[in-house]
């Protein structure tokens, strides 16, 4: 659920859910961005982009699984994003390179790999002052460089990322907190499913949670990439890929613990 600012998120939550549940739900708001193509590279947000070569420090090995290189899908410039994120970004990792196993590699090679392995994705940080453009090795695909403009937004979770302990609800009326949010907030505009987004909360129309939880709470959403015909990538039927990281590892800057989930029809 996408809002221009936190005040709008608070107001709509109170109107739809009531004073108590509305306050509890609004407290779950996170700052994030819609990622929009920029035809003018000067209008891009820092070095944020889709595709192109990776921006890695010299000597950083290209990530691979079973000897097969992953494909670079996006780079986020967290220095350019940090002013809006504020305390929601506890460390400054610089550039974040997002890699994933490309489903369009030669069929036989693709079938031999363990697709449930966390090594099918990788998020690699790089110091902007030492990062150099690094071309993808064969057979990883290199997608066209697409500069991105990051539009600030305030996001609330979809119903599938809410649990019963998050908000109060009438158990005689709703089977759970998810039912409350689905029923009362379902008509709110601002859906970003089918779009590229960073941070905040992911947006999915599917009935599964994206930001899995542990003892430290919900995972942190790093990047949402939708099917993109212009770039020539996709994940199944109308699929979307979501990169998340456990909250504790995000706070310590350990991006080796990031994982990717693919959700499609």
Would you summarize the structure shown here?
This protein is of the alpha+beta class and 265 residues long. The protein contains six helices and 17 strands. Strands 1, 2, 3, 7, 8, 9, 11, 12, 15, 16 and 17 form an eleven-stranded antiparallel sheet that branches. A two-stranded antiparallel sheet has the order 4-10.
Task: Produce the secondary structure layout.
Elements: E1 2-3, H1 6-17, H2 19-26, E2 30-37, E3 49-50, E4 54-57, E5 64-65, E6 68-69, E7 71-77, H3 78-85, E8 95-100, H4 107-111, E9 121-126, E10 131-134, E11 146-155, H5 177-185, E12 197-199, E13 213-214, E14 217-218, E15 220-226, E16 240-245, H6 247-252, E17 259-263
Antiparallel strand pairs: 1-11, 2-11, 2-12, 3-7, 3-11, 4-10, 5-6, 7-8, 8-9, 12-15, 13-14, 15-16, 16-17
Helix pairs in contact: 1-2
Organism: Actinospica durhamensis
Pfam families: DUF1963 (PF09234)
Protein name: DUF1963 domain-containing protein
Mean pLDDT: 89
Shape: globular
- Name of the CATH homologous superfamily: YwqG-like
Instruction: Assign the structural class, choosing from mainly alpha, mainly beta, alpha/beta, alpha+beta, or little secondary structure.
Output: alpha+beta
Helix/strand order? EHHEEEEEEHEHEEEHEEEEEHE
CATH hierarchy, class: Mainly Beta
Textual characterization of the structure:
- InterPro entries: DUF1963, YwqG-like_sf.
- This is DUF1963 domain-containing protein.
- It comes from Actinospica durhamensis.
- The protein is α+β, with helices and mostly antiparallel strands.
- The protein has one domain (2-263): Roll (Hypothetical protein YwqG fold).
- The chain has six helices and 17 strands.
- The chain has helices at 6-17, 19-26, 78-85, 107-111, 177-185, 247-252, and strands spanning 2-3, 30-37, 49-50, 54-57, 64-65, 68-69, 71-77, 95-100, 121-126, 131-134, 146-155, 197-199, 213-214, 217-218, 220-226, 240-245, 259-263.
- The strands form four sheets. Strands 1, 2, 3, 7, 8, 9, 11, 12, 15, 16 and 17 form an eleven-stranded antiparallel beta sheet that branches. A two-stranded antiparallel sheet has the order 4-10.
- Strand 13 (213-214) and strand 14 (217-218) form a beta hairpin.
- The two termini are 20 Å apart.
- The mean pLDDT is 89.
């Amino acid at each position: 659920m996408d809002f221009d600012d936190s005040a709008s998120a608070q107001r709509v939550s109170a109107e739809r859910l009531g004073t108590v549940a509305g306050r509890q739900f609004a407290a779950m708001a996170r700052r994030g961005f819609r990622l929009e193509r920029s035809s003018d590279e000067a209008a891009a947000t820092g070095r944020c982009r889709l595709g192109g070569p990776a921006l890695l420090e010299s000597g950083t090995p290209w990530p691979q699984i079973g000897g097969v290189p992953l494909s670079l899908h996006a780079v986020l410039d967290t220095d350019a994003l940090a002013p809006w994120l504020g305390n929601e970004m506890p460390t400054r990792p610089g550039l974040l390179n997002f890699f994933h196993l490309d489903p369009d590699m030669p069929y036989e090679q693709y079938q031999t790999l363990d697709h449930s392995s966390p090594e099918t994705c990788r998020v690699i940080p790089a110091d902007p002052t030492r990062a150099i453009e690094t071309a993808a090795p064969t057979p990883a695909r290199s997608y066209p460089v697409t500069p991105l403009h990051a539009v600030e937004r305030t996001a609330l979770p979809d119903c599938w990322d809410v649990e019963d302990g998050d908000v109060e609800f009438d158990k005689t009326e709703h089977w759970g907190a998810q039912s409350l949010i689905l029923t009362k907030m379902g008509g709110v505009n601002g859906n970003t499913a089918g779009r590229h987004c960073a941070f905040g909360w992911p947006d999915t129309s599917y009935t599964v949670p994206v930001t899995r939880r542990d003892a430290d709470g919900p995972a942190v959403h790093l990047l949402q990439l939708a099917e993109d015909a212009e770039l020539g990538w996709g994940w199944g039927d109308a699929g979307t890929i979501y990169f998340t990281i456990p909250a504790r590892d995000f706070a310590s800057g350990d991006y080796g613990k990031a994982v990717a989930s693919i959700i499609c029809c």
